[in-house]
Amino acid sequence: MQELEIKGWRNGLLIVLPDGGEWDEVRASLEARLNEAKDGRTFWRGAQVTLDFGARALEAESVAALCDWLRGLWGLIPLAAVAADGTTRAACEKLVLKTYDFLPTIQKATADWEPPKTTESALSTHASPPSSELNNALYLFRNVRSGQRVEHSGNLVICGDVSADAEVVATGDIIVVGKLRGRPHAGCQGDESARIVASELRAPQLRIAGKIAAAPPTEGLRTEKRSAEIARIENGEIQVFPL
User: Most distant CA pair in the chain: distance in Å?
Assistant: First the structure.
């Protein structure tokens, strides 16, 4: 049986709903989990959501009511659904949600990947490279406050400020359209090509893959707006450059 989970995924948030138990109880459990966020309803606003119903059978009215509730009360944006049950899948398609029979897995593209050779049996097949999860960016249109942690499998774009003592972690790039004072960790699964970009880079420490470095000093710049900067690994070390 699936357990209730809320986590980052390829296109934003993934909400995994238990496929057993009474539906009203599941809804109540989901509400309790959403309420655990420090800033309540404003924390989730604007995030794109994929709903994983597992094998649960639901009529169109129940799926529509859930989506309306997520939009209206929490500001979440349901875009896709995972549904093994045909009735639930049809209900999701009726609501124009991108629908999957099961949760897709993502195969990372590698530098030495080559398309398979064409054979007689595959003349009608058009080979294309596997899509990388790093192409699936999560956009957050809000500030990340002190004590909060945002983690995403892919590129992470934050249109707002990241406060001190906040953590932002991504397997790909981290881009902050605002002040970055918290602790960023780009390429957290070992991608040394990942970058950290910020309109104002004021983080005390930068992490890219397994590298750690202190950010440039901010002495004398407290009242001045700094130009955008990019941090990346060059010559085996994290270095910061004007963007």
Answer: 69
169-206 per-residue burial string, b: 16 or more CB within 10 A, e: under 16 = bbbbbbbbbebbbbbbbbbbeebeebbbbbbbbbbeeb
Task: Write the burial class of residue 166 (CB in 10 Å: 0-12 exposed, 13-18 middle, 19+ buried).
Answer: buried
**DSSP class of residue 140?**
E
Partners of residue 49 on adjacent β-strands = 13, 78
pLDDT digits (tens, 9 = 90+) for 184-199: 999 988 899 999 999 9
Look at 56 and 223; give whichever has higher pLDDT. Answer: 56
pLDDT at residue 95 above 60?
yes
Distant-in-sequence, close-in-space partners of 193: CB < 8 Å, separation ≥ 6? 187, 232, 233
16: tokens are: 């995994």
